[in-house]
């Protein structure tokens, strides 16, 4: 076994490799860009070397600097992770030339599998099933058109050197072929510097199933079963699971043996994945081989009990495979969700920003568990525009698929990220669709379930409003003393009190009224509905809400209904029983924005401070109104004075604090309606302005 390795990568995969190396007693060296100086992977390793600027071409793709770092630190081997240089044959050769072990396959295997047309020819010779198609070197457009006609439409044109969904076009009819070919070639030359293409039959409703293979230097090769990666957007994976639903033992053996044959055909060593496109009737065809460790490898680890990074290190150091094919077993079901900084509603455009809040379900990291989270970032870190948008991988395991699905839903429900857009809510909806829940899988699942995945109503307004009110009350409770004069809860010796909240939810403004009764009960008025309301908060983030059934504002029962308190609840509960909803929510405030997370979903609410913004919206037809109940402290302008927009006009005392109210527009003070010291109610007209 190696004594020290260099990890030529960043983020989650670098942390993943470092975790196994640490367990095995192998020292690690991190490389990092200027943007990653304080990154988690730097802290996870024993040593770290700066290799360049933030852009990958200035750092993580500079393999000469990586080799220099390896030599300078005494590393014996280089682990490339995935992405960057992991499938770069020149880098693999350079490692060997520098006397370093490349923890991956031989450069010849990378080369053979790197070109799609070449790999297809090799697979055909090895007896691996292929999709009917043309993989020849002759790229004459007329010949390609004839081959497409021979194969039969629909066909798929694919860049021979392509990947990641680039240089790929589906052609449904012969008259579309010429334009699609030209477009595909343009994209291929721009992306890969090679416009060669291959043509294959376009499989209808295909599933994407891949086989994990492992080879050693003794010539042995095994398969560690399959993963279903059919759920994709833009040809990139979203959810992966193992084993594949509906897979029979006979079909698994056929696919596994075909994958091993593919690996042996190129003299494969180390971890690799043979990807197949599968028809709904079970027929399967070779698609490509990824000559590296896959992002989704944890689901294989979950069902086999094996550490695939440990296997990589052992095989690369010359040791034989830890287990024979007959010794490998599967247990249970695992699903992985890729949590990415992106906006699903905008075509999955990548997002950047700071992880102001990053709270996760109870989990383990980089090892097997019922809930596993592999992440290379944490709360306070930035998702920059320089690298992949993946924030973390959430992996769940269950005794069967139903249990794994339930655990996935609970884990996504308890994943709270604030500060940038992510796909967490989308992932939860995706896993809950009828297609995924019933294992009706194919690569068009997201498009087929579009109605269930996009433009959903989200968290109900009454729950969002109640959560924000609960958060505000919890904050104010921390500011008051024990004497009654400092209380901020609206307490009165006699009578009720009312308080207005101005909230913006998804770009729509809402006014919410909180009423407190003399006996201590509370009500919320939301969108014309009066809801008995109670809350029990544990700190500023966790709140247990009770919401009664909504009553019309004019209902005579509205003022009589309250809630049954839970055992041991505080004084804010009380009153006779009514139908009620008990909802546990989490709230995280960032300035005026409050992120609300509940079992039904999440939303970011802007709590519009009516005092701070009084001058911006307090005018109604030349009037200036009080934004909340309080006492007039002073007027800063007199009748007949000219004032300008934003000028201070009055001072009110409310919630034990003084607040200045500003002019909403230019004008002349026509009338002052209150005197200093007067108590004014919420919405009361204070003065009139004339143009």
Can you describe what's shown?
It is a single chain. The protein is 25% helix and 33% strand. α2 (40-44) links the parallel β2 and β3 (47-52). The chain has an eight-stranded antiparallel beta sheet, sandwiched between helices. The chain has 18 helices and 41 strands. It is elongated, with a radius of gyration of 32 Å. Mean pLDDT is 89; it is low at 554-576 and 617-621. The chain is of the alpha+beta class and 691 residues long.
Lateral strand order in the biggest sheet: 14-13-10-11-12-15-22-20
Return Rg in Å.
32 Å
Overall mean pLDDT: 89
What does the largest sheet look like? 8 strands, antiparallel
Helix content: 25-40%
Number of strands: 41
Give a brief outline of the structure.
This protein is an alpha+beta fold. Helix content is 25%, strand content 33%.
List the helices and strands and how they pair.
Elements: E1 4-7, H1 11-24, E2 27-33, H2 40-44, E3 47-52, H3 63-73, E4 77-79, H4 89-97, E5 101-102, H5 107-114, H6 116-126, E6 133-134, H7 141-151, E7 155-159, E8 168-171, H8 177-192, E9 197-201, E10 207-215, E11 221-233, E12 236-242, H9 249-265, E13 270-278, E14 284-290, H10 297-304, H11 308-316, E15 333-340, E16 342-343, E17 349-350, E18 353-354, E19 357-359, E20 371-375, E21 382-383, E22 390-398, H12 401-413, E23 416-418, H13 424-432, H14 434-437, H15 445-448, H16 450-453, H17 461-477, E24 497-505, E25 508-516, E26 522-526, E27 529-538, E28 542-548, E29 551-552, E30 580-590, E31 593-598, E32 601-608, H18 614-617, E33 619-620, E34 623-625, E35 630-635, E36 642-643, E37 648-654, E38 657-662, E39 667-672, E40 679-680, E41 685-690
Parallel strand pairs: 1-2, 1-4, 2-3, 4-5
Antiparallel strand pairs: 6-9, 7-8, 7-9, 10-11, 10-13, 11-12, 12-15, 13-14, 15-22, 16-17, 18-21, 19-23, 20-22, 24-25, 24-32, 25-26, 26-27, 27-28, 27-29, 28-30, 30-31, 31-32, 33-34, 34-41, 35-37, 35-40, 36-39, 37-38, 39-41
Helix pairs in contact: 4-5, 12-13
């Amino acid at each position: 076994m190696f004594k020290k390795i260099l990890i030529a990568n960043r983020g989650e995969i670098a942390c993943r490799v470092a975790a196994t190396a640490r367990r095995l007693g192998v020292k690690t060296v991190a490389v990092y860009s200027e943007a990653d100086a304080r990154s988690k992977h730097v802290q996870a390793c024993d040593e770290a070397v700066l290799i360049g600027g933030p852009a990958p071409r200035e750092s993580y793709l500079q393999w000469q600097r990586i080799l220099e770092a390896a030599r300078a630190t005494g590393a014996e081997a280089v682990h490339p992770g995935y992405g960057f240089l992991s499938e770069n044959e020149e880098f693999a050769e350079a490692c060997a030339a520098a006397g370093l072990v490349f923890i991956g396959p031989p450069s010849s295997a990378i080369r053979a599998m790197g070109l799609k047309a070449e790999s297809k020819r090799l697979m055909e010779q090895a007896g691996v099933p292929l999709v009917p198609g043309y993989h020849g070197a002759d790229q004459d457009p007329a010949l390609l058109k004839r081959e497409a006609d021979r194969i039969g439409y629909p066909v798929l044109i694919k860049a021979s050197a392509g990947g990641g969904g680039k240089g790929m076009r589906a052609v449904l009819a012969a008259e579309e072929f010429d334009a699609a070919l030209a477009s595909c070639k343009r994209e291929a030359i721009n992306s890969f510097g090679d416009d060669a293409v291959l043509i294959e039959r376009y499989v209808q409703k295909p599933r994407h199933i891949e086989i994990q293979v492992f080879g050693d230097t003794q010539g042995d090769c095994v398969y560690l079963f399959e993963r279903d990666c059919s759920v994709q957007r833009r040809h990139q994976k979203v959810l992966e699971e193992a084993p594949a639903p509906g897979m029979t033992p006979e079909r698994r053996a056929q696919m596994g043996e075909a994958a091993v044959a593919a690996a042996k055909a190129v003299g494969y060593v180390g971890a690799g994945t043979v990807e197949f496109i599968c028809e709904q009737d079970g027929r399967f065809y070779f698609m490509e081989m990824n000559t590296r460790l896959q992002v989704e490898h944890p689901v294989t680890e979950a069902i086999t009990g094996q550490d695939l990074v440990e296997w990589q290190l052992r095989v690369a150091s010359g040791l034989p495979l830890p287990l024979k094919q007959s010794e490998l077993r599967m247990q249970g079901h695992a699903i992985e969700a890729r949590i990415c900084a992106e906006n699903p509603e905008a075509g999955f455009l990548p997002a950047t920003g700071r992880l102001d809040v990053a709270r996760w379900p109870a989990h383990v990291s980089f090892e097997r568990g019922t809930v596993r989270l592999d992440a290379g970032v944490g709360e306070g870190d930035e998702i920059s525009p320089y690298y992949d948008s993946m924030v973390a991988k959430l992996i769940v395991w269950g005794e069967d698929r139903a249990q794994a699905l339930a655990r996935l839903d609970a884990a996504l429900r308890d994943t709270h990220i604030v500060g940038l857009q992510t796909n967490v809510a989308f992932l939860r909806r995706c896993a809950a669709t009828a297609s995924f829940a019933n294992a009706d899988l194919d690569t068009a699942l997201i498009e087929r379930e579009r109605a269930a995945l996009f433009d959903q109503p989200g968290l109900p307004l009454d729950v969002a409003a109640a959560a924000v009110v609960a958060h505000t009350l919890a904050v104010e409770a921390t500011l008051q003393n024990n004497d009654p004069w400092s209380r901020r809860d609206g307490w009165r010796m006699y009578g009720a009190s009312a308080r207005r909240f101005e909230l913006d939810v998804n770009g729509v403004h809402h006014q919410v009224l909180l009423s407190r009764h003399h006996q201590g009960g509370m009500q919320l008025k939301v969108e014309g509905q009066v809801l008995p309301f109670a809350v029990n908060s544990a700190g500023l983030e966790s709140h247990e809400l009770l919401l009664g059934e909504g009553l019309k504002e004019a209902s005579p029962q509205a003022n009589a209904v309250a809630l049954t308190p839970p055992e041991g609840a505080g004084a804010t509960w009380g009153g006779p029983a009514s139908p009620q909803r008990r909802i546990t929510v989490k709230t995280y405030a960032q300035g005026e924005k409050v992120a609300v997370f509940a079992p039904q979903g999440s939303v970011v609410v802007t709590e519009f401070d009516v005092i701070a913004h009084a001058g911006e919206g307090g005018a109604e037809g030349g009037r200036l109104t009080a934004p909340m109940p309080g006492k007039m402290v002073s007027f800063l302008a007199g009748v007949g004075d000219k004032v300008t927009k934003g000028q201070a006009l009055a001072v009110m005392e409310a919630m034990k604090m003084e607040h200045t109210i500003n002019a909403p527009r230019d004008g002349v003070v026509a009338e002052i309606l209150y005197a200093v010291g007067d108590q004014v109610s919420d919405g009361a007209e204070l003065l009139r302005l004339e143009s």
